[in-house]
Amino acid sequence: MTRQLRSPTTIAFVAVVALLVVLPAIGSSFFVNFIMTRTLILGLAAATIVFLSAYGGMVSLAQLMLFGTAGFMFGNAVLEASPRGLNLGWAPWTAVVFALAVATAIAFLLGALSSRTTGIYFLMLTLVYAVIGYNVFAQVVPISGPSGITRITPPPPITQATHLYYAALLLSIGGYVVLKLVARTPFGLALQGVRDDPVRMASLGFRVPLHRALAFTLAGFIAGVAGLLNVWWNGQIDPASIGISPTLVLLIVAVIGGISHLEGAWLGAFVYVAANSYLRALPFVDRIGITEDRFNTVIGALVLLIMVLSPEGLSGVIQRLSNEGRRRFSRFSSRDGTGRVDTSGDDAGESPVVMIDSSTSPPTEERK
Amino acid sequence: MKQAKTSGRRLVASSLFALALIVAACADDDADAPPGLDDSEDAVDDVDDADDADDDVDVADDGDDEVRLGILGQCEGPFGGFHEDTVAGVALALVNHAGATVPSDDTALDGWEGAEVNGTPIELVGVGCGDDTPDRILAEVRQLVEQNDANVVIGPLSGDEGIAVAEYALQNPDVTFLSGIAGSQEPTLEVQAPNFFRFHGEGAIWNAGLGDILHNQEGWETAAVIADDYSFGHTSTAGFVAEFCGVGGEVTSRVFPPLGTTDYSSYIAQLPDPDEVDGYFWAVGGTGTQAALEAFVDAKGDLTGDQHAGNLFFNPDLAQALGPDIAGAYVGGFASPPGDVQMPAIDEYLASADETWDSLPTGIAGGERADASAAASFGFMYGYYSAGVALVDGLAETGGDPSPEPLQSALGGLSVELPYGDIALDDNRSGIVDVFISRLTVDDESGEVVQETVALIPEVDQTFGGTFGADTPAPSRDFPPCEERDLPWVGNAIPVEDGVPQQ
Amino acid sequence: MSTAVGQAPQAGDGTADSKRSVVYALPKAVAYAAAAFVVVWVLFIAGDSPAGPAVSNPGRFVVTLLDAITFAGLLFVVASGFTLIFGLMRTVNMAHGSLFLLAAFVAINVQHAMLGKSRNIVADEVGILDWVVPMLVGALVAACVGLILQQLFLRWNQGQELRQALITLAITVIMADQMLNHFGGLALRMTWPGSVTHFIEILGQRYATTRLFMLAVAVLVGALLWLWLNRTRMGLVIRAGVDDETMVRALGINITFVFAVTFFVGAFLAGIGGAMGASFAGAATGSDGDWLLNSLVVVIIGGLGSIKGAVAGSLLYGMVIAFAPAYLPSRYSFYAIILTFVLLAVVLAVRPYGLFGRPA
Description:
The structure holds three protein chains of three kinds. By secondary structure, chain A is an all-alpha fold. Chain A has helices at residues 2-6, 8-26, 29-56, 63-78, 92-113, 119-139, 161-184, 186-196, 198-203, 208-234, 244-257, 262-278, 284-287, 295-309, 313-326. Helix content of chain C is 71%, strand content 2%. Chains B and C meet through helix 10 and helix 11 of B and helix 3, helix 6, strand 2, helix 11 and helix 12 of C.
């Protein structure tokens, strides 16, 4: 434990957190309250994708739907005289509990329903969940309708934008720590076992579907927390907030950062948000024929580049660079035709670098 | 050893992240924090922070000797093709009325130079790039206001975006907002932000006149409605229903297929048959306009034009594969009338567009290059043009003072002279506009279906004689109900013959 | 909590098995009961629904059924390419919708060029060639683009399913943006040939032959696909590859070439679907996502990689789309679209990999 406290990882972690804590004092209002708050919220939501993928072998596209569900539920519960929604007029913190309870319950139901599928099937199934979620909120007028719920404000102690920034920071750290810790519990270890070899785990007597469903529920809960932060920050939510394109954006955020590193989620969110805001201001972009109205092409190309170069995203690239520098001739060269990155150097319990391909097929069926 | 290596990588990762943060934060700090703009000034803050008043005065003192204009367009989504039109509309207004010149004759996105009203320069600080969703437009408007320090914003383009921007306006009273062409009722009727001005109509207004003509002139007693199941479909329907029922007609069925429907047959089947109803009102957009009409032909029989009416989606350019059977159908209005309307001010306006640009890539030509006047005659560019002219007029009224209070009170009292009809504002700062109703007819020479303007409905306001107000629900699948009511403009329609209003 | 979850069941094997079969039998029973209820509802009850029960309004029922089957034909053509590619290569081609839309736009433009006009096109002016040639050109363009994508981005990472899905996803984002740039945001439409645009009477209801033509094209495509897979050497190799790729390689067959051909054909099918979809429903920005989603729903119901599954999935999905708005009680008919979810839930509760699917 003491060794861990002094390890470079912890030092770096503390340094980043410290920087983020003092950021409002040195950054501009827009940078803190827009760029960074949004980064933290998106990062927390994307971290649930990373968690499910890295520890459970499930790449979920339903996280934004759960994120939005919490937001919609909060808006419905807390507002009193909004033109749309149920206008339940509950106390803000009751509404928070209610919103998280609904998001978690839906996550459990959906998780149970999809618990016998994995990998690519899971990806497609959760995409369908996402679309159904969009349709439910667009069609069921009493809880939202097409124009959504507006004029949502944060609950009492959060009255200023910087408060919201700190709330997002606190909950991001909390979410990160919880997800890391869960991975080390017997449940987390069993989950990783399920990821690697569900058949063997089942024959050992582990309830594979239950593990997956519970992991999905936990991820749904945390996505719900991020969703609450989001409606507080954004002030409104509508069905298009959880439509197919923001759903894909969240996955893209997770992919940019690296879909097997929890930290990567926030890194990816930062890159995405910053690119979205600052890329168009760069002087040279116009000259190479990319104006801000073709921003999606740039984002698409970025994701394509990352996926072509390193399926481990930016964290993978960084890791590879530092690796390369360290031991140029050694075992990193074992990246074979399947694009696997050798990770035998990793402490398995702490940093499970899941192969982007291995999560879907048992090792016996590996293609060469 | 292993531990150290792993940690090393993480260390590199974290430090890179931290470095990026610092660089970004500092760069942002230098570039975007103008003197006087307090860091704590932001949306959430403003709601209940009384101390902020001091800071706001600061802003007015140091910052506001120029108009820092932000434009909200759409570069993605269904209207992504119209991005250039939005900037072009504002630029043309400044060229025509504020002495601006454009740096490029084949794109509007480069903005303008030298715009000035009474010595106050109008600078373009940024163009927001929406994708037809409220979330995205909020991010864009925050960037324009909070990062680029815009003090006037023109936009957005579509209805749900309008609601979000009006809500944002409510929390940022020091920024003046002029709607681009957002066609929902709520931004003005319900949100009522004192700094949000709309110099154009909306979905319900644009269908005023149809009910009167169809019931009293064409003899429709009953009608069925089919519209997209989202706010613009609901609002268009609301305008039609309010007037058609208001003058004594009866709407017997309302069908709302969800957005993204591919097979309309099940929804068409829910409509009454042609012999059970006098006519149909359509407000289905996008791919749905033609798909739904074709499903109608498939199940109910050939189109007979005079049994149909539609909102602005019934445009012969959009309905390119319908064939001439649709001729005879009535079409609701939009911000600008069809091309056949002839007035000197219009010719002048269109000529000024062609003088300003050789050609523009415009959504109305499917993203191809077209004459600037083609874009200018369409409602999207015209809505932004109207907002631009209103801004110039407002500034002229204040003697060039762009600070929020004088500018906003000047804008509220304006009657803006515009090529397609002057526009004044109601108490909620929404336009009282003239609506042009047209009909699809077969052109004798070419045999093609064209749009012919038949009537001008003067001075339509968004309350529809009290049908809609701040206390009524937003238009929905069943609101407004079908009941008789008095509408101020019924009976005042001015016939239009060969493009000339018969005053 | 976690320990409880992780514990091995202490009961003997037999008990666990019987428990498990009970657990799995339950959803099955519920599914069958739900299906039976739906049939009874549509036939006899359907109170207050727009259509009314089938026994009292048989014409409407038959027409709705035909609507379901004809739309299912279009769904099948689009989804078959998706499932073919997955079946052999385990590639989930998220760019399938983009290829669909690309072919649609190309076909529309070719048709406009052949007719010499882009507005006020009447079906009578459209000869059968004015429809077939644009369709084939559009499909070929989609097939070639698909092949290029496969060769550039998918060839060398075969087997990494998620990586490939994400790569094709990125391609979708780029293609959607570029198509918006080149074809604009307006909805465009292809016109059916005049020779198939007629109407017939079915139990007193008017019915369009274009829908039957669409079904005929779908059946033709399905038949050709079946012949190709079952009566040619290439088809044999593909079917063998689906079952055991390693074995096929070991036999010295050039599977890389087979992969390329399969991807070409899959993208071609997306293109055929694109031209049909553009004639049936039009094409615009956003159609790509809609049709990717349609394909996904079909293959999730039917089972990924199975052509039989694509047929079954298309039919079931088409049924829900056609019947839900007509036979739900009127005040709930706005929720028809949500019923798709119920269908998925029922199917997945019984068969997690779809009706004809199997675990990877």
